[in-house]
Amino acid sequence: MTPFDFDSRKCRPAKYKLRDTSHFGFEDSRSLMLDILQIFCLSCRMCELGKSMLEEKGKKLDPHVFSNMQHDAKFMVVGQNPGFNECVRGVPFIGAAGQNFDDELDANGLSRDKLYITNIVKCKTPGNKFDSRHSKYKQICSAILKLEIQVIKPKMIITLGSHAFSFFAPDKRMSNHLGDIVWTDWGPIFPIYHPSPMNLADKSRKDKFKKDIRIMCKVVRKLLSN
Ligand code: SF4
Predict the structure, then answer these.
(1) 145: domain CATH number?
(2) Which residue's C-alpha comes closest to atom 2 of ligand 1?
(3) For residue 102, is it within any domain?
(4) Is 72 inside a domain boundary?
(5) Any atom of ligand 1 within 6 Å of the Cβ of 49
(6) Residue 192 in contact with ligand 1 by CB distance below 6 A
């Protein structure tokens, strides 16, 4: 079985449309590379998460979700893995967690289209569970994330939650570095709490999340103006 054996077109003919690239020039190479990576990702069966369709809430779901395809973004946001809503629409961070994130971006005058948004693991886990038992999928799926970083070449990577942060800084505790820039082999990393409603149920966590997004937006705006 190879990563290419899965025919994603059979199960998602409408959600993903490839662009007509016949007129593309050199400056479009990033978007072309992302198209190619998206095809690879949606067809991927490198680990068990992508090997079969899921059945949830009466819907058959393809577990793969790639990225928001914002090829000209200078900043990358890396979350954990997609949930139900993301799988239905094929876009990362559009569920309740994504809404929390968007609301704070809006409140700080930063629009989502300035960010390339992706996940460290591109497939949904059954029942939306993601804990240390799922760490092996981070290692396998990071092959795709590494290629995304090569294409986007972000000025800074914003990690949402400890799973994403520990991939980039395995020897550091996220709680010691929240809202601060951490210099790693991958470049500057800016860790923030994962914006899932469950995660932010605690008021002090929610306040910290809001404060860190405010700082992150300031840093992004400053780097954009340089
Ligand atoms: S989780 Fe990643 S490595 Fe596993 S099948 Fe999905 S895309 Fe492939």
Answers:
(1) 3.40.470.10
(2) 141
(3) yes
(4) yes
(5) yes
(6) no
Rounded distance, CA 161 to CA 17, Å?
A: 31
What separation in Å is there between the alpha carbon of 224 and the centre of ligand 1?
A: 32
Task: Give a yes or no: residue 208 inside a domain.
Answer: yes
pTM of the prediction? Answer: 0.88
Instruction: Tell me the one-letter amino acid at 43.
Output: S
Ligand 1: residue whose CA is nearest its atom 4: 47
Spell out the residues 6+ positions from residue 33 whose beta carbon is closer than 8 angstroms to its own. 151
Q: Which domain holds residue 66?
A: 8-225
Residue 118 in any domain: the answer is yes
Per-residue pLDDT of the chain (226 residues; tens, 9 = 90+): 444 444 444 444 445 556 666 666 555 788 899 999 999 999 999 999 999 898 888 889 999 999 999 999 999 999 999 999 999 999 999 999 999 999 999 999 999 999 999 999 999 998 777 877 888 999 999 999 999 999 999 999 999 999 999 999 999 999 999 999 999 999 999 999 999 988 889 999 999 999 999 999 999 999 888 7
Helices (H), the chain: 29-42, 84-89, 96-107, 135-152, 162-168, 203-225
- Encoded tokens for 197: 């409603």
The count of domains in the chain is 1
